[in-house]
Design goal:
Blueprint (H helix, E strand, L loop, with lengths): L5 H14 L1 H9 L8 E7 L3 E7 L5 E7 L7 H22 L32
Antiparallel strand pairs: 1-2, 2-3
Length: 127
């Protein structure tokens, strides 16, 4: 894995697991773990993110998902993950009309989190 500074990895992983559980699950479900019941980000590097997918039988599996472009900063990783979450939610919505695809993330970010990284939220106002 191509390294990123530890502070970038820690910030992205912590934020994804604390604030975006449904984004983690959506991303994992459309990337080779369609039957996952939960997912958490376990790591990332400049080329990919790594999630642990959990299944209803109690088993888990690591899912490595390439970014499609190298990232070097928290802002770049955030931008790529936001795009992945949006694409995942839209893809899920095409297969399950009951799922409402959010415009960028499944749930609004805490105030200032995404804006601090230069990525705009275009969903409904969380405040």
């Amino acid at each position: 894995m191509a390294g990123l500074p530890a502070d970038v990895v820690d910030e992205v992983v912590t934020t994804m697991n604390r604030d975006y559980a449904s984004a983690n699950l959506a991303i994992v479900r459309v990337n080779h773990a369609a039957n996952a019941v939960s997912a958490r980000m376990t790591g990332l590097d400049s080329r990919q993110g790594v999630w642990e997918a959990a299944y209803s039988d109690g088993s888990t599996r690591l899912v490595e998902i390439p970014w499609g472009a190298e990232v070097a900063t928290t802002a770049e990783a955030t931008k790529v993950i936001v795009g992945m979450a949006k694409a995942a939610r839209e893809r899920i919505a095409t297969f399950d009309p009951a799922v409402t695809a959010a415009r960028y993330l499944p749930e609004p970010p805490p105030e200032g989190v995404i804006a601090a990284h230069g990525v705009g939220w275009s969903g409904p106002s969380p405040h």
